[in-house]
Amino acid sequence: MSLHGALTGLGWECAAIYRRGEDVSEAALGVDVCVIATPDSAIAGAAAAIQPGNAVVVHLSGATPLSALGDSNEVAALHPLQSLPNPHDGAVALRDCHYAVAGDPIAQEIAEALSGKWFAIADADRALYHCAAAVASNHSVALLGQVERLAESVGVPLEAFLPIVRASVENAFTDGPAAALTGPVARGDQATIDAHRAALSDAHPGELEGYDAMVELARKLLESPSGD
């Protein structure tokens, strides 16, 4: 629905929207583009149910290969590298973001119509690409959940951390993650890391494994900025 809102806002016409369980066999007839916006596991089944037509069939998955759409239609993949929390905000977020594309050039045309930038991802690389996207979005949110739990236990609201999070992210994109890293790992301050671990072991032992994992990732960043 986010893509529907974004494109109709630009004047594109929508012939029909099919809900779960409805007959989609004629979805690609009489239109230029047929978009499959189902969960990944349902893409192949939906594509197989669509009769061949003049439309390019497009899926919006980051991880699913283009081959899931079969070979009876012109096909493409268009994955917005963006978080879409709801249809209204999602329609706005789809403007001026990056898109992973594959297959028919219509995917590039849609990205450009939305003032976005695009890059091509081959089927063999889609799972790894989507893994990077999940780390960027889902893992960063999960880390903020850890921040919230630890901060609440000492009476500090999550919102107090917004400036440091925002600055750290901006620095990582401006200077590169390795150059942007600060704190005890970057300083080689093992005493502070040990103090963190002792405090977690005492008050939040369930958080220690996650902390240790991130310390190791920070060390890996310093040892090899490329992550190799």
Write the layout of secondary structure elements.
Elements: H1 2-8, E1 33-36, H2 40-49, E2 56-59, E3 74-80, H3 87-93, E4 98-103, H4 106-113, E5 117-120, H5 126-152, H6 162-175, H7 177-180, H8 184-187, H9 190-203, H10 208-223
Helix pairs in contact: 1-3, 9-10
Walkthrough of the structure:
It is built from 10 helices and 5 strands, in the order αβαββαβαβαααααα. The protein has 228 residues and is an alpha/beta fold. It folds into 2 domains: 2-121, Rossmann fold; 127-223, N-(1-d-carboxylethyl)-l-norvaline Dehydrogenase, domain 2. The protein has a 5-stranded mixed β-sheet with strand order 1-2-3-4-5, with helices on both faces. Helix 1 (2-8) crosses helix 3 (87-93) and helix 9 (190-203) packs antiparallel against helix 10. It is elongated and about 65 Å long. The two termini are 39 Å apart.
Measured between the Cα atoms of the first and last residue, the distance is 39 Å
* Helix-strand pattern: HEHEEHEHEHHHHHH
CATH architecture verdict of the largest domain:
3-Layer(aba) Sandwich
Structural class based on helices, strands and sheet pairing = alpha/beta
The shape, in one word, is elongated
Number of domains: 2
The residue ranges in which pLDDT falls below 50 over 5 or more consecutive positions are none
Please state roughly what percent of the residues sit in beta strands, choosing from under 5%, 5-15%, 15-25%, 25-35%, 35-45% or over 45%: 5-15%
What is the strand arrangement across the widest sheet? 1-2-3-4-5
CA gyration radius, whole angstroms: 22 Å
Task: Provide the CATH top-level class of the largest domain.
Answer: Alpha Beta
Estimate the helix proportion, in percent. 40-55%
CATH topology call of the largest domain: Rossmann fold
Number of helices: 10
Please summarize the sheet with the most strands. 5 strands, mixed
Q: What's the total number of strands? A: 5
Averaged pLDDT: 94
Q: Supply the CATH superfamily name of the largest domain.
A: NAD(P)-binding Rossmann-like Domain
